[in-house]
Amino acid sequence: MSVCALLAALAAAACALLMGAAIQRGATCTVAAVNELMDQRRSTRLRSLLEASLWVAGGLLLLRALPLPAPMLPVPYALSAWTVLGAALLGLGAFVNQACVFGAIARLGNGEWAYLATPLGFYGGCLSVGTLFAGARPQPLPPGSPLWAAPLALGVAFAVFVLWRLAHAWRRHAAPARHWWTPHMATVSIGLAFLALLLLEGAWAYTDALAELARGMVMHHGIRLALFGCLLGGAMWGGWRAGLWRARPLRAADLLRCFSGGLLMGWGSLLIPGGNDGLILLGLPLLWPYAWVAFATMCVVIALARWATRSAARRFTIDASSSPTAAP
Fold first, then answer.
1. Cα(245)–Cα(243) distance, rounded to whole angstroms?
2. CA separation for the pair 31, 253 (Å, rounded)
3. pLDDT digit string, tens, across residues 178-218
4. Closest CA to 246 of 113, 104, 127
5. What pTM does this model have?
6. Integer Cα distance of 62 and 144 in angstroms
7. Containing H/E element for 89?
8. For the chain, does the N or the C end have fewer beta carbons within 10 angstroms?
């Protein structure tokens, strides 16, 4: 390995570590975002997810104006019934898991070891999707993005937005040097770290790394699996630094729940194709229609599953309290 390649690999590892710590600190779980919207009628977490997409989109616009090599981007896919089915499975899996693929990393960073079963289930889903969904053939489209048609003025507007955000953060904290690691700054860091990884390693999401492993591409993409390890390490360091680290005992029920949720998310991500980390950090910023439909469908399915579960639990409670055998 040449010196330049080694430096690039080390920089990519640092970006993955930062992203892991930022995911642990930021409000970036889709399940938590839907729960907040339903319970508190607030959209703070959802806006954080969309802002991470905004930073990636704005960064890509600015990068195109600079004399730098264009980042390697995957191709988009056609919107189809498989997209919607995959997104529904992705949302159902996140609901069963009680965390999306972002949230699972944050939970691991808190010491909830049962969530180690989530990537294992995801890997199992990637291995078995071809057998269960043999007819699924996502149709790739020509490379490109509607984002590239945006005028240069939009990139200038994003630069103004960046300056405004920095000024706002500076005014909000009396001692920014000590209090800079806020949930908002963590959200921004996710977008910026992903942009840096995009330049260093191409489009990278840890769900993609697991899918590549399932396809037997380990030798060619070993660095991408190593980045997954760095992501986990960053999340655990972030949990320890924030005082949230507390090892929880493993229970068979939790392991089964996390594995099942990961399995469903693995099926869904290959049918879309794309996990919700790739959808949020790449598909949404590049304005790919299938990604927007998939993310919206995922959120709706999480909300419907939660509503159905709560309704069933409420009905069971009412029936139990009105039963003739109930204690007076």
1. 6
2. 20
3. 566 777 778 888 888 988 888 888 878 888 888 878 777 65
4. 113
5. 0.87
6. 17
7. helix 81-97
8. C
